[in-house]
Amino acid sequence: MYVCERVAPHQVFTQSGPLLQQHVLLSLIQQLSADMNHHTEIRHRYLEEAVMNLDPKNSATREHMPAVLSALHKQLQLYISLHPNAPIAKRVRMLQMATQSLLA
After folding, report:
1. Is the pLDDT reported for residue 17 higher than 90?
2. N or C: which end of the chain has fewer CB within 10 A?
3. Which phi and psi (to 5°) does residue 13 adopt?
4. What does CATH list as the number for 2-103?
5. pTM over cut 0.90
6. Cα angle value 31/34/37 (rounded, 5°)
7. Which domain of life is it from (predicted)?
């Protein structure tokens, strides 16, 4: 969280592509989704960018993406069920839908 709080997502996820390799994106998703109840806003911003920058055509991504995104989906569902009226809940639902579409 230390780095995420000090570096804006647009500095990591540029228009020319993310500065992080696919396996690092998967690890970032896994780590950030572990506890959505703390630093939710920053976690959401990074998770949204990381999910949108996954490359399902990459062999390493394709291999590990189902497990990582399934865990993310569960954590997002848990957050929504515990905080249905939170200001960020609608955006978390949108991320959950994007995650679900990548799992389909």
Report:
1. no
2. C
3. -110, 85
4. 1.10.220.100
5. yes
6. 125
7. Eukaryota
pLDDT in tens, 82-94: 999 999 999 999 9
Residue type, 98: A
- Report the C-alpha dihedral over residues 75, 80, 82, 86, rounded to 10 degrees: 130
Q: Which residue pairs, CB below 8 angstroms and at least 24 apart, start in 35-38?
A: 36/75, 36/76, 36/78, 36/79, 36/92, 37/79, 37/82
Predicted local distance difference test score (pLDDT) of residue 32: 97
Nearest alpha-carbon partner for 87 in 41, 39, 34: 41
User: How would you class 43 by CB atoms within 10 Å of its CB: exposed for 0-12, middle for 13-18, buried for 19 or more?
Assistant: buried
Q: Is 27 exposed, middle or buried (0-12, 13-18, 19+ CB in 10 A)?
A: middle
Tokens of 75: 């954590």
